[in-house]
Amino acid sequence: MLFGQSIFQSVLERLKQENEAAGETEAPATHRVSGFSTGLAFDVLEGVSAASQRVGQAYFDNLGAEPGIPEPSIEEPPRPAAEPEPVMPGHLARTSPEDIAAELAISIADTLQTLNEKRRTFAKANHPDSVAPPFRDNANRRMMIANLLIDEALRRLPR
């Protein structure tokens, strides 16, 4: 540390001296890539690369044709067979509270454990994530009604 300077100022001075010493020994900067004897050239027409217009063919253009070997062609992958329309399960058509209450069969004898088990069983069969997308609204409606019925039964349980 120099006299009359803070530690911070002395560190800055030392870094400055090291940078000046390192700058003298470095090679001059060039705009060439080491190992290339020539610059890079691209076939550009009107600002658009020809290869960018044929992305799938660019790899084959660089292969070059060998005598006696036909040039490869790019084929479209086969399209998957059309999936059949999903059929709505019969229970998803029943969305009235009376139908769902009959399915749940909630009684006065049900306990907290039995009501929770009924909720899980009903959710396994009717959860919107487990049905086809066209039927999710019905499944969602059935789950909401079932949850309301079970929550009401839980609220009425004796404490």
Give a description of the structure.
- There is one protein chain.
- The chain has six helices and two strands.
- The chain is mainly α and 159 residues long.
- The protein has a domain of 50 residues.
- α4 crosses α6 and α5 runs antiparallel to α6.
- The N and C termini lie far apart (78 Å).
Q: Give helix % range.
A: 40-55%
Mean of pLDDT: 78
Protein structure class: mainly alpha
**Structure summary, number of beta strands:** 2
Secondary structure tally, helices: 6
Outline: flat
- Low-confidence segments: none
Spatial extent as radius of gyration: 38 Å
In terms of DSSP E residues, the strand content is under 5%
Order of neighbouring strands in the sheet with most strands:
1-2
Distance between the termini: 78 Å
Characterize the biggest β-sheet.
Answer: 2 strands, antiparallel
User: Could you give the order of the helices and strands?
Assistant: HEEHHHHH
Give the arrangement of secondary structure elements.
Elements: H1 7-25, E1 44-45, E2 48-49, H2 50-53, H3 58-63, H4 97-104, H5 112-126, H6 136-155
Antiparallel strand pairs: 1-2
Give me some keywords for this one.
flat
Quick summary:
With 159 residues, this protein is mainly α. The protein has 6 helices and 2 strands, in the order H-E-E-H-H-H-H-H.
